[in-house]
Amino acid sequence: MEFLKKNWSNILFIIFILLLIIPQTRTPIQVQLNRLIAFAPSEISEEKREVLTNYDWLLQDLEGERHTFRSSEGKVAVINLWATWCPPCIAEMPSFEKLYQEYGNKADFYFVSSEETGKLKKFLEKKNLDLPVYQPLTAGPQQLQSNSLPTTFVISPSGEIVVNKTGAANWNDTKFKELLDDLAKEQ
To answer: 63, 91, 96, 102: least CB-packed within 10 angstroms?
Structure first.
């Protein structure tokens, strides 16, 4: 008993590390930690914004219908590059779901994943998400390339990349919604 009293913090730390090693418990812990530290994304200052020069990107939805990113030219577009195995991606999905339900008519949303259709459908069903998920059929515009997941871009109607966020964020934040409202006025 004396041993437990002296070493309780070390024992808890070891248990926590063990839980992070076990795949079945690691992902839920990482998701919750990412949700705790997720803040609203930052807007890129106007002088540092790049303008998207290429809208040529062929995508396919989960029903097999083809879509072109060109249809979003002149509109507000939110592009999220993600995967079902990515804890930060999973952590931000509930805030994206709320944002999409509220702003799906003010902006074009693209949740892009290279994973197979069945896996994506199963994930969306399990998490009770109703997001427009696409698979890339061609490489996306160079300015929308990323080696990190999740990465989210917000494109203004004039083609400016207004947000380029790597990592989990709270997308259902009031400040971010104000940004989308301001961008939507430009359409």
So the answer is: 63
Residue range 123-181, pLDDT digits in tens: 999 999 999 999 999 999 999 999 999 999 999 999 999 999 999 999 999 999 999 99
Do 46 and 116 fall into the same domain?
yes
Q: If you search the block for the tokens 């104000």, which residue do you land on?
A: 178
Structure tokens at 187: 């359409």
B/e letters for 122-138, b = 16+ CB within 10 Å, e = fewer, are ebbeeeeeebebbbbee
> Residue 53 is part of which domain span?
39-184
CA distance 1 to 17: 23
Give the C-alpha separation, 91 to 175, whole Å: 19
Q: Are residues 81 and 6 in the same domain?
A: no
Number of domains in the chain: 2
One DSSP character per residue, 10-38 reads HHHHHHHHHHHHSHHHHHHHHHHHHHHH-
pTM above 0.70, yes or no: yes
160, β-bridge pairs: 51
| Assigned token pair, 25 | 């418990």
